[in-house]
Amino acid sequence: MPQLPFKDKGPAQVIWDYDGTPLVLNPTLGTSALRLTDSVSDVQEEEWGETPIDAVFMGTVCELDIPMARSTMLQLETLLANAGVVNFAADETKFKVKAGCAMYANAEDIVMKPLCDNVPSVTSSEWILIYKCHPYREFDLGFDRDGQRMHMVKFKVFPNMASGYEGELYQVGMP
């Protein structure tokens, strides 16, 4: 049986702003997950009760989770600058409420490359290019006897609006 282009198992190198100022988001601890969910709305008729007689696609939600372990200040400052960080300094980091700010204009691309022996794939047909991603905060910093702290950085993935790519979210394989 043929293998998926990006391999069946294993970690990936994750690169934010691949076409601009690339920032590697590794190391990670846990599953880096690209999720795509189609939203579906049932069509019903009274005569059939709760049984849908049809359904309509209502859109697609795509998100990426990157569990960053042993993150550097540069990684966090770059990713979280547009997600509510007020001040990053050697002795002080402040977070603030974020409200009313659009995300698409500051969205960047992400490339995921499978790792083998901790070396990123050089075969571009194995890479995943996610066109428009913007990070947002959703993490718990645990303090306990045996847990390792990490920042779960989440990304909203938006449909690309560039000419020729309208509505596309990501692609497997790069030229």
Mean of residue pLDDT? 89
Task: Please state the CA-atom Rg, rounded to the nearest Å.
Answer: 19 Å
Q: What is the overall silhouette?
A: globular
Total of DSSP H or I helical runs spanning 4+ residues: 1
The largest pleated sheet is described as: 9 strands, antiparallel
Low-confidence runs of at least 5 consecutive residues: none
Number of strands: 11
Question: What string gives the helices and strands in order?
Answer: EEEEHEEEEEEE
Number of domains: 1
Amino- and carboxy-terminal Cα gap: 25 Å
Strand proportion, as a percent range, falls in 35-45%
Provide the helix percentage: under 10%
What structural class should be given to the helix and strand makeup?
mainly beta
Briefly characterize the structure.
With 175 residues, the chain is mainly β.
